[in-house]
Design goal:
The complex is a heterodimer of chains A (310) and B (345). By secondary structure, chain A is α/β, with parallel strands linked by helices. Chain A has 2 domains: 214 residues, P-loop containing nucleotide triphosphate hydrolases (Rossmann fold, 3-Layer(aba) Sandwich), CATH 3.40.50.300; 67 residues, Alpha-Beta Plaits (2-Layer Sandwich). In chain A, strands 5-6-7-3-8-9 form a 6-stranded mixed sheet, sandwiched between helices. A 4-stranded antiparallel sheet of chain A has the order 11-12-10-13, with helices on one face. The longest helix of chain A has 16 residues. Chain A is elongated. The relative contact order of chain A is 0.14. With 345 residues, chain B is mostly helical. Chain B folds into 2 domains: 234 residues, no CATH class; 78 residues, D-Maltodextrin-Binding Protein, domain 2. In chain B, helix 3 links the parallel strand 1 and strand 2. The mean pLDDT of chain B is 86. Classes of the chains: A alpha/beta (310), B mainly alpha (345). Chains A and B meet through helix 3 of A and helix 1 and helix 7 of B.
Chain lengths: 310, 345
């Protein structure tokens, strides 16, 4: 089997421009069969435009999209039967019940899953006869995923599936993603939560301004930082970065809010050295924390900006 | 495993449930036209002349006088003691006071027209009761014959207006709301056929059509005695074709707007001219000759003309073929254009 046989989705040189904004700027992506592929990036990075082009809902200006060996021009109905989609924000009909909504979506597909079994799988069984208007945010999101799964798809697209959800609902949704993968499905999801990408995705593409800036497994990407740890601290007075850069083991430093953030290779080396510098400069330590490097740190080191601009 | 119906059936069921579960929509479709018919019907009804109050002085023959007077549709009589009777006459509570005889005594003020009428009516009733025979045969013709009253003209117009309104509102709002909620976008992300979605909107409308038309017609019959002179079948076909035409127009109006304000404006743009021009409240023939071809081509004119032909004149389906053809063309053309220009995102 060649590598291309193994791909369920690929796009080459994808471009899309809206009025005066370039949303997607020459993107190449390849999703393998059975893989969970994450598109990670800040708001406005072009994630939703990209996924909607791949879903056949938006036309690209340039570039090729291939799903399951076909393009959207070949046979859209054939593809629609085989993919499941959850859009970023869909409000299903408030007046219909969960059961009725799923029956409706089931009727669109030649083959698919049993609505009742699916609601049970998604812990919506007790809400079968509740109107959609009465559901909580988490329950609505699960209904959206149920509607995406009802046609028993080969590829599942989830656009920001857990944005705005409480922690419990996020966990339940992640569980669904795991289950879909176990049954052999392939998945493309977008998120701006780094922990979600690290937790769910086999491979992650980090995009910014419509361009790919990093691609790999979460551990490869974090490993590419070369600095395994991050030290964040604040002191009174603050220490200038010219001094911080001279501390042993500090690869780089940058301001993050009121704190200095240091990318370091070894905590054991750098933390005592940092404390010694503070002592020497007569500065009082206000806060100090350390963590292992994450995709968030990678994004910051690549772009100089935070992933979440909150 | 539950059985899975075709998408068209499921979409129609879903749309129907959505409609039924929206209390306010049900009100506008069913209750509003009835209230309108009621209000207009009473405003323009032919008033039965008021009965003139007449008094009878209590006495041995007062009860037989009373029952004779009761036969006159123009009078309403009651018995008074002599003093109270005079008092009532003087203060205008009654127009005439009758005292048993013989001879009978009519007390009244001849300067009051109502009193003079009461005297004539009372005398007529009492003389007839006493056995008088008319020597000259007469027949009365009153201008309240069924079919020629304003309400007979109005009800088919209201029916047409209602078919237009519900077709437009019912379809327009539901589609634009679904577009605003990105539900349309979600739907075309499935293998659903676009024409199925639009057909379902029309079919769901036709389910309510029967109820909607029946409610108004039965109401008009019970309240105002407005009947259907033509065949029910012809009426049903006319309503069906008319409702389909307005569903098509509703789909077309809702094909592009992405706000409720936008679609409301378009609907008013379409409906208000037809309310005025298409002969809902008064005949469209009052407009100048040069405008007639245009007015004839409007779907509401065609529908109203056809409904009146069936309901008032009792004409057969072949004689309204032109109107039905105009409506069918509207239905097909608007549906086809709507399907082409429909915005799903």
């Amino acid at each position: 089997m060649t590598v291309t046989d193994d791909l369920v989705l690929s796009c080459r040189n994808l471009r899309k421009r809206f009025a005066d904004v370039v949303a997607v700027d020459g993107l190449d992506l390849h999703v393998r069969r059975g893989e969970c592929f994450g598109l990670l990036g800040p708001n406005g990075a072009g994630k939703t435009t990209t996924i909607e082009i791949l879903e056949g809902l938006t036309d690209q200006d340039d570039g090729e999209v291939t799903l399951l060996g076909r393009s959207w021009n070949d046979d859209p109905q054939w593809l629609r039967e085989r993919i499941g989609i959850s859009l970023q924000e869909t409000r299903f009909n408030d007046k219909l019940t969960v059961r009725e909504t799923l029956r409706l979506f089931r009727s669109f597909y030649k083959n698919g899953r049993d609505p009742e079994a699916l609601t049970a799988d998604l812990s919506l069984g007790e809400k079968q006869d509740a109107r959609v208007g009465k559901l909580s945010g988490g329950q609505r999101q699960r209904l959206a995923v149920a509607c995406a799964l009802i046609g028993d798809p080969e590829i599942l697209f989830l656009d920001e599936p857990t944005t705005g959800l409480d922690p419990q609902s996020r966990l339940e949704l992640w569980e669904q993603v795991h289950r879909f993968r176990t049954s052999g499905g392939s998945l493309l999801l977008t998120t701006h939560y780094m922990d979600e990408a690290e937790r769910l995705c086999d491979r992650v593409a980090i995009v910014d301004h419509g361009r790919l800036i990093a691609l790999g497994t979460p551990s490869e990407l974090i490993g590419s930082l070369q600095t395994a740890n991050v030290v964040e601290f604040a002191s009174e007075p603050m220490i200038p970065d010219s001094i911080l850069r001279t501390i042993e083991g500090v690869a780089s430093c940058m301001k993050r809010g009121p704190n200095w953030s240091l990318n370091v290779s070894s905590l054991a080396t750098t933390v005592p050295a940092l404390l010694a510098v503070l002592e020497r400069e007569g500065a009082k330590l206000l806060t100090l924390s350390t963590h292992q490097s994450t995709l968030e740190d990678l994004f910051v080191s690549l772009t100089g900006r935070e992933l979440r601009d909150e | 495993m539950s059985k899975h119906h075709s998408a068209l059936i499921e979409l129609t069921i879903a749309r129907t449930k959505e409609f039924v579960r929206q209390g306010e929509a049900v009100f506008w479709v069913f209750a509003f036209p009835l209230l309108l018919a009621l209000a207009l019907g009473f405003a323009f009804r032919e008033k039965a002349p008021d009965r003139i109050p007449v008094g009878v002085i209590a006495g041995s023959s007062s009860s037989s006088i009373l029952s004779s007077l009761a036969k006159s549709p123009a009078l309403i009589a009651r018995i008074y003691e002599a003093r109270q009777g005079s008092e009532a006459l003087r203060t205008g509570k009654i127009s005439l006071l009758v005292e048993g005889g013989p001879p009978l005594v009519y007390r009244f003020d001849p300067t009051r027209p109502d009193s003079r009428v009461a005297r004539l009516e009372a005398d007529d009733a009492l003389q007839q009761a006493a056995g008088r025979r008319n020597t000259l045969p007469v027949v009365e013709k009153r201008l309240t014959e069924k079919g020629s009253r304003y309400i007979d003209f109005l009800i088919p117009g209201l029916l047409g207006m209602n078919l237009m309104g519900t077709g437009m509102w019912g379809i327009g709002f539901s589609i634009v709301t679904a577009r605003m909620n990105k539900l349309l976008k979600r739907l075309i992300a499935t293998p659903m056929r676009k024409s199925d979605y639009m057909m379902a909107q029309m079919l769901s409308r036709l389910i309510f059509l029967v109820l909607e038309v029946a409610t108004l017609i039965i109401f008009a019959w019970l309240t105002f005695g407005v009947g259907v002179n033509g065949s029910i079948f012809t009426l049903a076909v006319t309503c069906l074709v008319g409702a389909t035409a307005f569903s098509g127009i509703g789909l077309l109006v809702a094909a592009r707007p992405s706000t409720i304000e936008g679609v409301s404006g378009l609907m008013n743009l379409v409906m208000v001219p037809m309310w005025l021009l298409s002969g809902v409240f008064f005949s469209s023939e009052r407009f100048p000759d040069w405008a007639q071809p245009l007015i004839r081509a409007l779907p509401l004119t065609a529908l109203n003309d056809a409904l009146r032909a069936v309901m008032i004149e009792g004409r057969s389906i072949t004689t309204i073929a032109t109107e039905l053809a105009i409506l069918a063309v509207w239905a097909v053309v608007t549906f086809a254009i709507a399907l082409r220009i429909f915005r799903w995102k």
